[in-house]
Design brief:
Chains A, B, C, D: This is 6-phospho 3-hexuloisomerase. The structure is a homotetramer. By secondary structure, chain A is an alpha/beta fold. Chain A is built from seven helices and five strands, in the order ααβαββαβαβαα.
Chain lengths: ~180, ~180, ~180, ~180
Amino acid sequence: MKSIYLSEIIHELAAYSEKVKEADLQEMLAAIHKADIIFVAGAGRSGFVARAFANRLMHLGFHVYFVGEPTTTCIEENDLLILLSGSGNTASLVSMAEKAKSLKAHLATITIFPENKIGALADTIIALPGTSMKSQDGSQLTSIQMSGSLFEQLAWLVCDTLVLMLMNDTKQTSEDLFKRHANLE
Amino acid sequence: MKSIYLSEIIHELAAYSEKVKEADLQEMLAAIHKADIIFVAGAGRSGFVARAFANRLMHLGFHVYFVGEPTTTCIEENDLLILLSGSGNTASLVSMAEKAKSLKAHLATITIFPENKIGALADTIIALPGTSMKSQDGSQLTSIQMSGSLFEQLAWLVCDTLVLMLMNDTKQTSEDLFKRHANLE
Amino acid sequence: MKSIYLSEIIHELAAYSEKVKEADLQEMLAAIHKADIIFVAGAGRSGFVARAFANRLMHLGFHVYFVGEPTTTCIEENDLLILLSGSGNTASLVSMAEKAKSLKAHLATITIFPENKIGALADTIIALPGTSMKSQDGSQLTSIQMSGSLFEQLAWLVCDTLVLMLMNDTKQTSEDLFKRHANLE
Amino acid sequence: MKSIYLSEIIHELAAYSEKVKEADLQEMLAAIHKADIIFVAGAGRSGFVARAFANRLMHLGFHVYFVGEPTTTCIEENDLLILLSGSGNTASLVSMAEKAKSLKAHLATITIFPENKIGALADTIIALPGTSMKSQDGSQLTSIQMSGSLFEQLAWLVCDTLVLMLMNDTKQTSEDLFKRHANLE
């Protein structure tokens, strides 16, 4: 017997993902390709999604850091900061956004609320749908889950979508990425 | 315009998720409810999924640690160790599995390969499908993604499914969980 | 042959440590004993000192979290937040200090500059000497090291001093502490 | 009034540090200068010392990773792995040592027991004194602290000594190092 809750989660993801715009993803790709160094950050569960994305960017051969790690250096003018924040208002991330902009770095974010603090500062935004949106057929988007959960799930899938697009752009296979995979864990 | 890659990922998740057994999830729930303390571990990207799950178990009010954090204590006889490992052979996790069993703790795992080292030691297993399986209609399961990616995505969704089931079991709402959410980040 | 640099570092620590006040340490002990839950935080290298301290507080049997870990819960009124910050002005830590005070939690800090933002909010302060101070014999305190290094070293030793005092207070031996030591790493 | 426990800790560090050999430090410097990429690892409190060292190596301009971070890549033949382990037998670190040697990377360690598993595999060793040693005047070295504490303290100071030597070697000032300091925390 299969899980009804799991089916429902995937059903929700299918409905919400319809609202993710290919054009947003393309803009993020352009920002990634243009950056000297990429910094990725997020708090709580979004932070774990952000770390998983930083990991794959390393596998892809990009020069990338997760903010807060022991060997993370300083951000400068031609670098990119990608912030994952559902609310777009997380205090520690807003500070980072302000700092990055003050140094003329490029600021990108994945968020439900582009109108909030981080989005208002950002150069590039991937907007993810929230429960205030309507689905394809005009009905209200809903969720049986905690509000943050769907954002985190969809953010993980959107980041993995960006990885597939970047593999395609750079003509790299899974084998190419595995060559850079950590071998000391 | 919507993203073709994102649609394909969700299409894959829908097909693979059919193979996840409700009975496996129920056994994991029983192990979680029975444990004095829950320890969760994983390496690499599976480790980020594991941290996100540990976070929600804390929100639910369970006594839980992620292995390797500064305040994680020792595991003992009536505790539970949950290991997320696609391969079931990750060296550092196999060591943990052996240690936990030697102390008579309960060992659970989420893995693609129950027949490998960790699964062979485990008391409770949630088996996730791999590309060697056939789908509902008899066709081979395939993926456009790196082999690990689908495991990590599905593991995240399965853990969130367990969270929904645990909310139901303990009669807690999202508001109950939010009361325990970190407020210093 | 012994190392001249290492001898000089220890010589500096001996001179600076004369300025650490026993009364400050006693006040911190009182705050620790009184707290329901202890939260510890720090950024950069001070953050690693803070994690090492949180680890020993766990060994001692206190209910303790390092801020930012996956299983760290919310701070409340009768809890204690200990911030390690040389400058006393680190943005992310100032936010935590403000949040903790707004919830009427007890705020403690280990810092060189009690007059700065975190110190100004704190209920309990261990003031560590900086290079602006004079030593016992009236000469200026100096250092061959980067300004932060001496703070971090002395903070580590001061935290280990607190651990010895807490072992004494709670009549626990090394063996008692080792029983709580992580056994899954 | 000054702290008696703190004075005693510094007294112990002074006695133990006499046993650290300048020649060991010089060999570690040579290994660091020769390496393409430096990987640093440690478990528990030694792991926090190791992270603090990795942080300064980044400040110095070296290409360095802490093992287990999201953006840490794979180790290869001309790289260096530095393991901090008091006992020299920590399971997860022994696995890393074996893996590094199998790939012909250079293995270095800071340990009390060079004769144990990690030391037996290592190309370069900084041996720190333990309580089984005699001090300068022929009396037994002792400690009022938990056995690991003195190792961790001395390891932190030895790493900061290496930093001073590396600043000297590379003719860099504190200002040069601060330019690479994280500005997003």
